[in-house]
Each structure stands twice: as C-alpha cells, then as structure tokens.
Amino acid sequence: MFRLIKQEGCARRGEFTTVHGTIQTPVFMNVGTSAAIKGGVSSLDLKNELKTQVELCNTYHLHVRPGDEVVYKMGGLHKFMNWDKPILTDSGGFQVFSLAKLRRIKEEGVYFNSHVDGRKIFMGPEESMQIQSHLASTIAMAFDECVENPAEYNYSRKSCERTTRWLKRCIAEMKRLNSLEDTINKDQLLFAINQGCTYDDLRIEHMKVIREEEYCAGFAIGGLAVGEPTDVMYHVIEQVEPFMPKDKPRYLMGVGTPSNIIEAVARGIDFFDCVMPSRNARHGTMFTWNGIVHIANRRFETDSRPVDPQCDCPCCRNFTRAYVRHLFKSEEQLGGRLAVMHNLYFYNTLTERIREALDEGRFAEFRAEYSAKLAQRLPDEL
C-alpha cells in the first residue's frame, strides 16, 4: 500500500494507496474534528480550492454528536460530509485523556463523563474500533493511552504495555468488523501508535514491539507536541525513526507549525495533522512564505496587497490585507472563513512544495531557506 519513491537523508517521498484514493506524501491532513472544518469551510472548498488530500475527523466527538449510529445510518462519513477522498479518524484516546475531567483507566478501557452533557461513557479498544467502523473512515487509529508530559517513568512503562495490549485487541476487533456483511468500509486500515513519553528506552522498546504487528498499515508517534520543548520532540523522533518500518507510512500526531513539519520531514515523517492553521486563522494569525502575519494589526489598515503576494489561494486572489483586517475588526464571519481557507491552502501548498523539492533532490536547500523563515513574524517592510 505504501511505495517509497525517493529519499533524501531521512526525508521520504512516497505514496500511500487506499480504497478512497492515493495519498501523496509527505501530507498534511486538514482537521475537521466533527466532520467539518471550523471557520465555515466545506468539503467542496477543501476539494476544489484548497488542495486537501486527507481529512481528519475525531471518533470521540462524532460518538458524542451526532452519534456514530447516525453517521452509519447516513452511509458513513464520506456520504455524510460529501467527501470522496481519504479520511483518517483519531481513535478518541487523546480526547478521553485531555477533555474528561473525571476518568478511570482500567484494563478493559476507560470510564469517563462526556464533556458535553456529563453522561457516563465507556470506551475501550473494541468500542473505538466499532465507532470508527460505523464512521467508515479510510484509516482508523488504534486506541491508546496518551500520557501527559512529564510523567513518572514506571507509570509510562506500564502505560506502554497497556497500549500494546490494547493494540492487539484493536487488531482482532477490526478483523472481525471488516468481515461483517453490513460493514460499510471492509477495507478500513489500522495505524498503531507509539507511546513512551520522553523516555528514549520506552519509545524505542515500544516501537520494536508494535512494529511486529504486520496487520498495521502505518505507525504513528503519539504523545508529543503536548507542551514539551520543540527540541525534545525532535529528539524523540530521531530516537524512534530508525526502528520504524521503512515500507509503511509514519505519522506524527498533532504537529504542528510549518517549521515543525519541515523539520519532522527531515527526520523521516510522512503524515501530519494539527488544528493550528484553522484555529490561528480564526484569531487573525495567517501564515505566509515570508513569515507570520497578524492581520488585525493597524499597519494593515490601508494595505492594498494580498495577505501573501506569493499565494494564489481564494483569499489572496481576491482580497486585500486591508479588507481582511476590516472583516476581523468588524467581527464579520467572512474574515475567519477567508483566513482559514488561506492557512489550509498554505499548509497543503507547503507539503506540495516539500514533495516537489524531494522529487528534484533539493529538500536540503528548501529546508535551509524556509524552516526558520516560516516561524518568524512578517517584517514590517515586507
């Protein structure tokens, strides 16, 4: 399913074939948590205007609202949201551990209360797989325990062992579900998740164990970008990457900034997702090829240039910085929509340009030019 086309250092250029289409990697997955991008951007926008290859939706949120049974009755996520390309569903594990104020973790799974209405919910590996099967996503993520950093070593070790046991249960349940006659997507794929906090030995040992599960179509690094310093995140990737299968995609969950993506590609990562482009956009922070723009700043009040003169997204093709600033200052919803469209287009163009650089053997030059630049605030004179 995964073909490695080219490699430059650790950076990889590949393609991943699924039942819903072939994904060119490295790839950024646009985050539509509840089957929609926040900011009023539709599936048609993603497909026709924003170069989106993969949409990411969340198991926990869709289980709570509208309910995975509802999505199943509507024919699965692809029909429900009118999207015919690949969809990856997060297992719900991160949300269980980040949103649930009261939770009890046991071997069978996790007992917790909904963050919406407080009702009691139980989710374990089988339940996560069943929900994701109802959603009929292209790629389902294994149910894991995401431990916040920093964490005590012995607890982290026991958590890794539990996550491994849960993975085996996820595999068994997905095999069963994919064999059922009434399953919508019988070709649903499973990605395993590497955990171990920031402990090198736990990360490496856990990767060595889970990579033996041949059923898994890909492997993710989870539990990072949750507050630890960036250099620690890069260090963990560097420790784990040599032990990840070469013939399967690697996914760094929840990352990140444009610079993070470039640096993680340089360390061997293929898949990315993050709420940052849409979340930041809704507050007026926009990414450009010269750095970061805070569009509500007064200096843009009479600026007749596009947000990014190097960008041909719908926002930059049609509107000025002055107008987008006015929309934000007037609290017009169009401002957020245009900014979200711009940022998603930017992220998808970023990974497109990374792929082109890898194809042409110049990724090192691309990284040297853009990794630091894209993290900086746009200078006043540009």
TrEMBL record:
Per the record, its GO cellular-component terms are: cytosol
Residues covered by the tRNA-guanine(15) transglycosylase-like domain = 11-374
What is catalyzed by this enzyme? 7-aminomethyl-7-carbaguanine + guanosine(34) in tRNA = 7-aminomethyl-7-carbaguanosine(34) in tRNA + guanine
Entry-linked InterPro entries: ArchSynthase1/Queuine_TRR, TGT, TGT-like_sf, tRNA_ribo_trans-like
Q: Where is this region: RNA binding?
A: 254-260
Q: Can you tell me which residues the record assigns to a coiled coil? A: none
What's an example of a GO molecular-function annotation for this chain?
Answer: metal ion binding
GO biological processes: tRNA queuosine(34) biosynthetic process
Q: What does this protein do?
A: Catalyzes the base-exchange of a guanine (G) residue with the queuine precursor 7-aminomethyl-7-deazaguanine (PreQ1) at position 34 (anticodon wobble position) in tRNAs with GU(N) anticodons (tRNA-Asp, -Asn, -His and -Tyr). Catalysis occurs through a double-displacement mechanism. The nucleophile active site attacks the C1' of nucleotide 34 to detach the guanine base from the RNA, forming a covalent enzyme-RNA intermediate. The proton acceptor active site deprotonates the incoming PreQ1, allowing a nucleophilic attack on the C1' of the ribose to form the product.
> Which family would the database say this protein is a member of?
Belongs to the queuine tRNA-ribosyltransferase family.
Query: Which protein are we looking at?
Result: Queuine tRNA-ribosyltransferase
- Species in which this protein is naturally found: Ruminococcus albus 8
* Gene for this chain: tgt
